[in-house]
């Protein structure tokens, strides 16, 4: 067999915005994905979106019917999102926007958040501490198969 020539020119890829998925219940995976995304966003000088999703299946039927329980969870998530946004800005990312969704994480991110933010790149973690729960880390396969943008899975 002879040497095969590759016939194409290398073209630079332009990343205009990055979305990172974080999950408080999967902190190791989320921290790694967050660190990767803020480093890349700062270096590329592009906007960063940060998304977390309230997994409504985690709530019992009783809890989900109690507005104060659901509102309490939303408030905790908002405070957590505010911290992520603050950390990204302190790290040097100039344009940062937080998103909070509700439902199954992979589906919400692909169907709702990506169309709204329109990133060129989605960054997510892949490991999870509890395999029986639906964390963003366990949704990496779904997102990489269904997202309309490139996906980097950070381990």
TrEMBL record:
<comment type="similarity">
    <text>Belongs to the universal stress protein A family.</text>
</comment>
<protein>
    <submittedName>
        <fullName>Universal stress protein</fullName>
    </submittedName>
</protein>
<dbReference type="InterPro" id="IPR006015">
    <property type="entry name" value="Universal_stress_UspA"/>
</dbReference>
<dbReference type="Pfam" id="PF00582">
    <property type="entry name" value="Usp"/>
</dbReference>
<dbReference type="InterPro" id="IPR014729">
    <property type="entry name" value="Rossmann-like_a/b/a_fold"/>
</dbReference>
<feature type="domain" description="UspA">
    <location>
        <begin position="15"/>
        <end position="155"/>
    </location>
</feature>
<dbReference type="InterPro" id="IPR006016">
    <property type="entry name" value="UspA"/>
</dbReference>
